[in-house]
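Problem 12. The chain below contains 110 residues. Write out its predicted structure in token notation.
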Amino acid sequence: MAQVFYAQLACLILGLCLLPLVWQPMAPADLALLAVYTLFLVSTRWLMVVIVHMLPAYIVLQLANLQFIWMVVLGHAVFGESTGPHIWLGTALVVGSGLWLLHSQQRNPA
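Solution.
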């Protein structure tokens, strides 16, 4: 829960500091969308904390690595980032190390 609460608290404090510089009234429909978005965001972050807490560490590491791989692939495919061979090599190393870790955990469970 700390990951959810303190991240949202930091966003709130920063928003309150910047709010006087950009204040414009919002339409009620926009406020409703903001409330729905906030509800979904906090709920999914809380759910991820619960799920990660239940999983073994070697599985959680793979989830974190998967985020890195998606950043590289989507950055290249969707946003047109210049992805050099060293980035693809690093991505391959992340995938390879994750597969090796999963394989070793399956062969020798702790």
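Discussion. The two ends are 28 Å apart (CA to CA). Students who got a different answer should revisit the alignment rule from Section 12.3.
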